[in-house]
Design the sequence.
């Protein structure tokens, strides 16, 4: 096997000869939240590495540029640097892309970096090794579980990491194969974000800002609407308990519009509820890593006996799920029949208020939803407090038109998610074989 002849080198041996080519983020007062500024030098945090490992070039905090230049120069990261979290969310790895938003970044307190000697080690190859089972096992074998999880002696641990290093052409070829799969996964993620934004924008225009109604009130044809759809909007407003709303629209409590149900957890000490289970059962934990509001799978599954222990039973595909605690507000439409635990309010939607409408309505009204949560240990919104929230509803024909408009968006989001899961499975199966030399790619 080709990998048997590859030398094993440490990260320190493969790092650039530049000063601070391996470095841990700064410790000290001036990088804390109270010292953030509206603009300046962007600070890298764990949030800048996506759950799938890709660099997330957004959601930055900043520190003063002069402070960054004179006091934090050794903590600078730039294109092709490999970055890692050493505290908190461990195991997250990223590579700063060549076409990044900023030329330079400052590492936050929980970050580490490696700048590779490009004559020895391709950054993307190191990234994939750190993402591999060997790399992750190495990282987590050196984690302290006391308090906040963190790597012990983080900088030394990073420098001492030893990996097989094939010839550079092989490194680049292997990284290119894996990178192409990740590029497509990232493209799907961006496409899904765009599709979701389009659905939100349409909901905002039609059901929050009432743009078509205002256009007709001004004697204008509603823009970007065909005549049949435009005809579904009135040309005037009426007073209601929710303020000015389009004429002939209604205001109703959400609990009278859709059926809101909760769930439960069968005893985990009873094997007959779980062993050999085939029915999806979800908790808010399944939602923490969702990159689009669609649930495709669950971590655990129930048997027939387990389903029978939950009053709401197996909910049909298309049910809208909202986490009601820990935290309040995770949202997804289930693409599968699913049972839920007690941490959800499930909405069985209908033609009066479709699941796409209610998903966007919940997103739009999350501040009020969260405001109705109670609890001292953690916030929780009960079905009793959720059901009275008022929903402004259009006539059924307009609801149907909205659903028809946005259904293709969510269908494409779901298809992209399925494809990304398949690509991720392929990547994960290729990764150890390419890194061990079991499979070779022509350079």
Sequence:
């Amino acid at each position: 096997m080709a990998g048997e002849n590859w030398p094993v080198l440490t990260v320190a041996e493969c790092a650039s000869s530049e000063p601070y080519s391996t470095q841990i983020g700064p410790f000290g007062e001036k990088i804390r939240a109270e010292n953030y500024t509206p603009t300046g030098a962007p600070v890298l945090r764990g949030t800048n590495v996506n759950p799938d490992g890709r660099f997330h070039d957004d959601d930055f905090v900043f520190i003063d540029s002069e402070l960054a230049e004179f006091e934090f120069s050794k903590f600078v990261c730039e294109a092709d640097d490999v970055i890692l979290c050493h505290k908190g969310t461990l195991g997250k790895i990223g590579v700063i892309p060549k076409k990044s938003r900023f030329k330079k970044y400052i590492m936050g307190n929980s970050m580490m970096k490696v700048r590779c000697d490009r004559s020895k080690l391709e950054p993307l190859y190191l990234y994939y090794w750190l993402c591999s089972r060997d790399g992750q096992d190495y990282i987590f074998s050196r984690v302290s579980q006391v308090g906040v999880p963190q790597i012990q002696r983080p900088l030394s641990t990073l420098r001492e990491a030893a990996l097989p290093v094939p010839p550079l052409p092989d490194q680049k070829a292997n990284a290119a194969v894996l990178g192409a799969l990740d590029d497509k996964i990232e493209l799907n993620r961006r496409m899904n974000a765009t599709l979701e934004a389009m659905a939100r924008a349409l909901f905002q225009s039609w059901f929050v800002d009432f743009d078509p109604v205002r256009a007709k009130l001004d004697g204008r044809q509603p823009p970007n609407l065909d005549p049949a759809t435009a005809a579904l909007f009135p040309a005037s407003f009426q007073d209601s308990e929710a303020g000015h709303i389009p004429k002939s629209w209604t205001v109703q409590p959400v609990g009278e519009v859709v059926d809101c149900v909760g769930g439960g957890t069968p005893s985990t000490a009873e094997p007959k509820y779980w062993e050999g289970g085939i029915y999806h059962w979800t908790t808010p934990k399944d939602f923490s890593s969702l990159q689009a509001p669609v649930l495709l799978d669950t971590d655990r599954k129930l048997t027939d006996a387990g389903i029978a222990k939950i009053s709401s039973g197996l909910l049909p595909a298309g049910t809208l799920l909202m986490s009601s605690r820990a935290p309040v507000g995770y949202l997804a439409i289930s693409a599968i029949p699913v049972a839920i635990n007690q941490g959800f309010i499930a909405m069985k939607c209908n033609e009066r208020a479709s699941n796409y409408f209610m998903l966007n309505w919940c997103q739009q009204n999350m501040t009020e939803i969260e405001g109705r949560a109670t609890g001292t240990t953690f916030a929780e919104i009960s079905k009793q407090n959720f059901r009275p929230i008022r929903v402004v509803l259009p006539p059924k024909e307009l609801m149907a038109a909205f659903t028809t408009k946005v259904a293709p968006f969510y269908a494409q989001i779901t298809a992209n998610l399925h494809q990304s899961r398949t690509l991720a499975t392929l990547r994960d199966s290729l990764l150890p074989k390419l890194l061990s030399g079991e499979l070779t790619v022509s350079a």
Notes: Residues 396-436 form the longest helix (41 residues). The mean pLDDT is 93.
